[in-house]
Structure formats: structure tokens, C-alpha cells
Design a protein that fits this description.
Elements lengths: L2 E4 L3 H12 L4 E5 L12 E5 H10 L2 H10 L1 E2 L3 E5 L5 E6 L4 E5 H9 L4 E3 L3 E7 L2 E6 L5 E3 L1 E2 L8 E2 L14 E4 L8 E5 L10
Parallel strand pairs: 1-2, 2-8, 13-15
Antiparallel strand pairs: 3-7, 4-7, 5-6, 9-10, 10-11, 12-13, 14-15
Helix pairs in contact: 1-4, 3-4
Flavin-adenine dinucleotide binds next to helix 1, strand 2 and strand 3.
């Protein structure tokens, strides 16, 4: 099985980290030309649930890096009036972390291969899997998957963008110029590039 993720935002990258940790290959596509292209806000507050979720999906060293680079908020919030007179102090229980959005994004990008400049337009599903289509006209078929009975990933799909392999019956998934190379076995009769 392989997964196509559209959008290298916090959600898409977190998903990619979780899939990677679970050993499921994925490819992330992002319409921006680079991670630095757009300012994406300043700081992000992460509460206990967010911290727990990140601990579960990130490799331990990346979660440690996240914790080390996050600021710890005071355990309370002061409420002032218009003359800055303290009205009340709200006690904030639990975890409160503040992290720079770009720092978090860099952590989430670690080990990920993202195809930038790829604007997703639509997808199509057939019996071989799903094909994502992009504005640049180069589609990606999520055509590699593991079957319960197969020990190697299988690769197929009517839009299989794989170069012809020198080994009959096998191909290397290379959708997009920066996609990971995933050895697979082609199961599609319509895969014109794989010399099955
Ligand atoms: C002002 C503000 C403050 C916030 N503060 C907090 C906070 O303190 N704590 C907190 O937990 N959350 C906060 N949030 C929410 C948090 O920012 C979002 O939940 C989070 O960014 C969502 O992540 P996402 O990956 O789903 O979307 P995004 O971060 O929006 O990422 C989506 C990505 O998909 C890409 N994309 C979109 N369409 C396409 C396409 N067609 N093809 C290819 N790529 C595409 C975009 O370019 C983008 O990079 C805040 C949000 C706002 C607006």
C-alpha cells in the first residue's frame, strides 16, 4: 500500500510522519514551490492532546526535538482591565507548549520527501487504485500496495508512471521527479512502461 498526501501543511506532514513510522510508504505533494515560500503565522499553541498525538506519530528523537524547541507557557493566564489592573488569574492545567510554526514544520519535514510546485486538481479511482492529477499534467498513481499474501509491494495502475524496468515483471515507482523509489512488482496489464 502507498498513500498520496495532498498538502505539506501541519496535518499532511504529521500524517506522513505517522505513516512512515508505521512502515507505510507515502508521497506528499504541495502546491507551494517551497516550504519557505509563504509565511505561515508565528506561534502555535499545542495542548496536552496535541503533544500526545505528536509523541505517537513522531520518532522519539523528533518528538524530543519538538519538546526542546517549544516554549513552556506560564501555568496561568492573567486577565487585565483597560487600565492594566489585574482582574483575575485563570489557572491553566495540563500541558501548554508554544512552538514556532516554521520550527515545527521543519521537524515534521525531517525524513520526508515532498514534491513542491504540485497543485492537485482532482483524483480518479479505478480497480487498480487511485490516481491524483495535478495542474502540471503529471499524474501520480498510488499504485503500489501490499497484499496480505504478497511479500513484496505490488505495483500497477492504468496511469503507472514507471520507467521500463530491465527486469521483467518489476518496476520502480517514480511518480514525479522527486518521489521515493519504491521497488514494486507490476500487476497491471495496462501498465505500458513495465515490461511484464
Ligand atoms: C490564526 C490561526 C491561529 C491558529 N492557532 C492555532 C494554535 O495555536 N494551535 C493549534 O493547534 N492550531 C492553531 N490553528 C489551526 C492550525 O493552524 C491548523 O489546524 C493547521 O494548520 C491545519 O493543518 P493542515 O495541514 O490541515 O492545513 P494547512 O496548514 O492549511 O496546510 C494545507 C496545505 O495544503 C496545501 N494545499 C492546499 N490545496 C492544495 C492543492 N490543491 N494542491 C496541493 N497542495 C495544496 C497548502 O498550500 C498548505 O500547505 C490556528 C489557525 C489559524 C488560522
Amino acid at each position: 500500500m502507498s498513500v498520496i498526501i495532498i498538502g505539506a501543511g501541519l496535518g499532511g506532514l504529521t500524517l506522513a510522519q505517522g505513516l512512515g513510522r508505521a512502515g507505510i510508504p507515502c508521497q506528499v505533494y504541495e502546491r507551494d514551490p517551497s516550504p519557505e515560500f509563504r509565511k505561515q503565522g508565528y506561534r502555535l499553541h499545542i495542548g496536552g492532546a496535541g503533544d500526545t498525538a505528536l509523541r505517537e506519530v513522531l520518532r522519539p528523537e523528533l518528538h524530543e526535538l519538538f519538546r526542546a524547541t517549544a516554549g513552556r507557557a506560564l501555568p496561568h493566564t492573567n486577565v487585565y482591565d483597560e487600565r492594566l489592573r489585574l482582574l483575575t488569574r485563570l489557572e491553566d492545567e495540563g500541558t501548554h507548549l508554544n512552538i514556532n510554526r516554521f520550527t515545527l514544520r521543519q521537524i515534521l519535514l525531517h525524513g520526508q520527501e515532498v514534491s513542491y510546485g504540485k497543485r492537485f486538481t482532482h483524483h480518479a479511482i479505478d480497480e487498480d487504485g487511485v490516481t491524483a492529477h495535478f495542474a502540471d499534467g503529471l499524474p501520480h498513481a498510488a499504485a503500489c500496495w501490499w497484499e496480505p499474501t504478497a511479500s513484496t509491494p505490488r505495483c500497477g495502475g492504468s496511469t503507472c508512471r514507471t520507467p521500463r524496468s530491465s527486469t521483467p515483471g518489476s518496476c520502480t515507482s517514480t511518480a514525479g521527479s522527486r518521489s521515493p523509489r519504491t521497488p514494486g512488482r507490476c500487476s497491471s496489464r495496462r501498465c505500458s512502461r513495465c515490461s511484464r
